[in-house]
Design brief:
Largest interface: A-B, 65 and 59 residues
Distance between the termini of chain A: 70 Å
Mean pLDDT of chain A: 88
Low-confidence stretches of chain B: none
Largest sheet of chain A: 6 strands, mixed
Order of helices and strands of chain B: HHHHHHHHHHHHEEHHHHHHHHHH
Helix content of chain B: over 70%
Oligomer: heterodimer
Strand content of chain A: 5-15%
Helix content of chain A: 40-55%
Distance between the termini of chain B: 34 Å
Mean pLDDT of chain B: 85
Strand order of the largest sheet of chain B: 1-2
């Protein structure tokens, strides 16, 4: 490479962000004009009133700032929205689709992206995108090992934390083996949601992290040749644990909220959630006793990001992008992290935010049961989606018919 | 003659979505050379899931029918019966999901019964680790289904039974020395069952395929077949669609097999009843124990459902309610405050859809029945099967085809489209509850009216409609209750954009917050309860000075 060429290249590199920024701004302004007056139908799981209230608040912001109306379509499962877009594609509905925005990640994203059901890439062009902590929180651009490539935009981080009642358990265990020992000594006081529920599968993945000789294997697709041998310790762990579970392992709670309800009812003493702020938020809402505290495991627990994606045939793509960008706004992110509101972890790089925005985060009282970001420990990357599918199927084959 | 064409029109209206549904079921199941059936057969839970569907469906239906007949036999025409009816009728309006959630809270190890006995009698300071809910044999589910089906059968029986004729027959039987129960079984039941048969079939098909109740009360390792079909449909990468379709086909076959089995038992019972009649056993000693069973079980079920709803109501205002406290330590209105902003629009939509589905259904059914009467038509067995097909085909098999249809004509996502699909589910129930009272009208009244020179239209408006006021209002209330309780059709055809109290409540029920579930379940119960209240009260008001036609 000639020196001159190199110089031109450097100049070009230095210049291009400015140019790109300008055209981006112009494009974004056009998008804002287009979005004004649109009604965006955001299909989002509707099982948690706190999340529903937060989405309603985002809707007020969208209306006030951009004249965009936000309607939450409350789903029992995200797959409902995926199936709906799939049905529209099958029926030849290429424009004017019912779904504008989906709260999505993991398998649902992989399924839609592979089937070409998503609009994009759009995320990296959002004005607030540079605020996202893509290096410190790699899960914001890698969704279950699948690169997002701008087809979905992150809006919240989550990490698995264990919740326990300090009245019944003095010293929380620090490893899965210690948890198993405690469960066997205290039968009936621990359980996990029934796979293929995502939180139940997350527990299995956490066990995989502890039992695989090399956890890096989880970042590659399942290898049929070694799978059986690699998972022997996983099933051995479960075989030992199950008789000591709630109901002797003959029934399992259906979902994360059902598991949380068991903790609230005092049926179990040790539980877990995919949201470090859940316990504090539930205590603040009066749903959980104030003796509940949280802990994570030595070596870390699994963490991932929640995203929003736009279907290929969404009727209001401009409005949907405005909402996706609004969700990355520091004020909105700080509100989501407030345990009195949601207690979700932010996707932004707080340290690099302007002072006024950083102050919003510093001012947050994380709540009595929430670990500080330092105490939370490392967030382990989600395994490749094929692991979840495979172990969920095997779990059903092994334990799906009660003895 | 427009009236004469109405039966055909109605059948077309019912047949089109049914055909689309069946097509939508068979096609993916057979695609790929039946690969769906192979993965279905490979599922280790299949034998148990199929057995659960058959077992809980048959057991709950048989028990419900048995109790219904027991109650009628022991108490019909007595003052105790009126009291019992008043206790049971409101339970009919309770949506399945709300009833299941209420029952769950009552019988769960952390529920009200355990709390009432703890710690003084049981020594429990934490909820006991007992598998009561979601028990592997589906006992809780069977009880829940029974508690919902008994009021339905009883109300249909009451609107079909010809009270005066029944009294005459039982008096005659009594003069021959037969007891109440045996007199009822031998002289009233045979006629009554002919009218109850289709409602019983509908109950059986529903009980075998119910998803919402099974989700809350039913086993999970494995779940019932219908529930598993729904779970497969929900698999995000859509790889299980053919398995789901194959499961739906199997579910359909199971329902048909159960119906065939039921018919066989019907024949045996008829034979047994005949043997009994010719043998001439008076069996008067049956009366006391049967009356006792009728009173205890009916009151027990009414009490259980009532307490369950009471518990939900209390949860909706509970702040801190730890085990084993019998009552919440503190109360507040947080649950209601959270629920309220969504309630008003959802209630308006729910009501609009229910009325828009039920009123046309009522009009069509009245038109069909009037056409029968005027033109001497009679519904062929084939026509009846077509009409009831939406109740006999599992919903999981029926709806995808309808959704595709709605998408193709661009009608999905609007509440009128949802109402139209609700109509498919509502109309059979309206027909079910109205046809027998209509056909049982004394034909001599019509002959007399014709002799007095009245036109057919005036006979309809001045004679039949007023005489049928009570059954018509009951049919309306049943139709509205059916519409209000629909979840899957509302979600799919509404594209998630049509929010009713039921879609809202079911979405929330996966969130486990009992305070808000309590608030929504109560509201969801209130609308149909109002309709049933009016159906009971209005005829009494209207006929307060006409004892002969007063219900």
């Amino acid at each position: 490479m000639h020196r001159r060429d190199f110089g031109r290249l450097v100049a070009g590199l230095a210049l291009s962000p400015v140019l790109a920024g300008q055209s981006l701004a112009a494009g974004w302004d056009g998008l804002l004009v287009q979005a004004r007056g649109q009604t965006v139908y955001w299909h989002a799981w509707g099982g948690d009133p706190k999340i529903n209230a937060f989405i309603a608040w985002v809707g007020e912001q969208a209306q006030a700032r951009h004249g965009v109306t936000l309607e939450q379509v409350k789903l029992a499962a995200t797959a409902d929205a995926v199936a709906r877009v799939q049905a529209e594609q099958a029926a030849g509905v290429a424009t004017g689709g019912a779904v504008d925005l989906i709260w999505i990640n993991g398998e649902n994203f992989a399924a839609m992206k592979t089937a070409g059901l998503l609009y994009g890439p759009f995320a990296t062009a959002l004005p607030n995108w540079p605020l996202v902590d893509v290096t410190g929180k790699p899960a914001t651009v890698t969704d279950f090992t699948l690169p997002t490539q701008g087809f979905e935009s992150p809006w919240a981080m989550a990490q698995m934390v264990f919740e326990y009642d300090t009245e019944q358990m003095k010293e929380p265990p620090q490893t899965l083996d210690a948890i198993a020992e405690w469960a066997i000594a205290n039968p009936g006081r621990f359980t996990y949601p029934q796979p293929p529920d995502y939180l139940g599968v997350t527990f299995l993945k956490q066990v995989l992290y502890a039992t695989l000789p090399d956890p890096a294997l989880l970042q590659a697709p399942v290898d049929d040749a070694t799978y059986a041998a690699l998972t022997v310790p996983l099933w051995a762990f479960l075989d030992r644990l199950h008789p000591a579970l709630w109901r002797g392992g003959r029934a399992f709670p259906a979902s994360e909220p059902a598991l949380g309800q068991l903790l609230a009812d005092g049926e179990i003493v040790l539980s877990f959630a995919f949201n470090p702020g859940r316990a504090s938020a539930e205590i603040a809402a009066g749903n959980l006793h104030d003796t509940i505290r949280t802990f994570t495991l030595t070596g870390g627990t699994i963490g991932n990001a929640s995203f929003v994606a736009i279907p290929f045939n969404a009727a209001h793509q401009a409005g949907a992008q405005v909402i996706a960008n609004l969700l990355l706004d520091p004020e909105v992110q700080a509100r989501a992290q407030d345990p009195a509101v949601l207690g979700f972890q932010t996707v932004l790089d707080v340290a690099k935010l302007p002072f006024a925005d950083k102050a919003r985060f510093d001012a947050l009282d994380l709540g009595i049961a929430t670990l500080s970001p330092a105490d939370l420990g490392p967030a382990l990357l989600e395994p490749h989606a094929s692991w979840a599918t495979r172990i969920a199927a095997d779990w059903t084959a092994r334990y799906g018919v009660a003895k | 003659m427009i009236v004469a064409l109405l039966p055909r029109l109605t059948l077309c209206l019912m047949a089109a979505p049914v055909l689309a549904g069946v097509g939508g079921t068979l096609f993916p199941a057979l695609a790929g050379g039946g690969a769906g059936f192979r993965t279905l057969a490979a599922w280790p839970g299949l034998p148990r899931a199929a057995a659960l569907s058959l077992g809980t469906g048959l057991a709950s239906t048989a028990l419900a029918l048995l109790l219904c007949v027991t109650i009628l036999a022991a108490l019909h025409g007595t003052p105790a019966f009126d009291r019992l009816r008043r206790r049971l009728a409101p339970l009919l309006s309770v949506p399945h999901a709300a009833a299941a959630l209420g029952l769950a809270f009552l019988i769960a190890p952390s529920g009200w019964i355990a709390r009432a006995l703890s710690p003084w009698a049981t020594g429990w300071t934490a909820p006991p680790d007992l598998l009561i809910l979601n028990d592997p044999f589906g006992v809780s589910l069977t009880l829940g289904l029974l508690a919902k089906e008994l009021p339905f059968l009883l109300l249909v029986a009451l609107s079909s039974i010809n009270t005066a004729q029944a009294q005459r027959r039982m008096t005659t039987a009594a003069t021959f020395g037969y007891g109440r129960v045996s007199g009822f079984l031998l002289t009233v039941l045979p006629d009554l069952y002919r009218q109850l048969r289709l409602p019983v079939y509908a109950v059986l098909a529903y009980a075998m395929t119910s998803v919402d109740m099974a989700m809350i009360l039913g086993p999970t390792l494995p779940p019932t077949l219908s529930q598993q079909v729904v779970l497969w449909r929900m698999v995000p990468d859509l790889t299980q669609q053919t398995t789901a379709a194959a499961g739906a086909v199997l579910q359909l076959a199971l329902v048909l097999a159960a119906l065939a089995l039921w018919r066989g038992v019907e024949r045996l019972s008829r034979h047994a009843l005949r043997l009994w009649a010719t043998a001439g056993h008076r069996a008067a000693a049956l009366d006391a124990p049967v009356r006792w069973i009728a009173n205890v079980t009916a009151s027990g079920l009414a009490l259980a459902l009532g307490l369950g709803l009471g518990a939900l109501a209390l949860w909706s205002v509970a702040a801190d309610w730890r085990f084993p406290a019998l009552l919440p330590a503190t109360l507040d209105l947080r649950g209601w405050r959270v629920a309220l902003p969504d309630v008003l629009p959802a209630t308006a939509t729910t009501l609009a859809i229910a009325l828009a589905a039920t009123l046309p259904a009522l009009g069509l059914v009245l038109g069909c029945l009037e056409a029968e009467t005027r033109h001497g038509l009679s519904a062929t067995p084939r026509a009846m099967t077509l009409l009831y097909l939406p109740l006999l085909i599992p919903q999981v098999a029926f709806l995808p085809g309808l959704q595709t249809l709605a998408l193709a004509i661009g009608a999905e996502g609007t509440w009128p489209a949802v109402a139209l699909v609700h109509l498919t589910f509502v109309l059979p129930y309206v027909f079910l509850s109205l046809s027998q009272p209509y056909r049982s009208l004394d034909p001599r009244l019509t002959v007399t009216a014709r002799a007095l020179g009245l036109t057919e239209n005036r006979i309809f408006a001045r004679l039949r409609l007023p005489l049928l006021l009570a059954p018509i209002l009951t049919a309306l209330a049943i139709g509205m209750a059916v519409s209000i309780g629909q979840y899957l059709p509302t979600l799919l055809i509404g594209g998630g954009r049509v929010t009713t109290l039921t879609t809202e409540a079911v979405a929330l029920s996966s969130g486990g917050n009992r305070r808000i579930i309590g608030a929504f379940a109560l509201l969801q119960t209130l609308l149909p309860a109002l309709a049933f209240g009016l159906a009971l009260a209005l005829p009494r008001l209207f006929w307060r000075n006409r004892r002969g036609v007063r219900p």
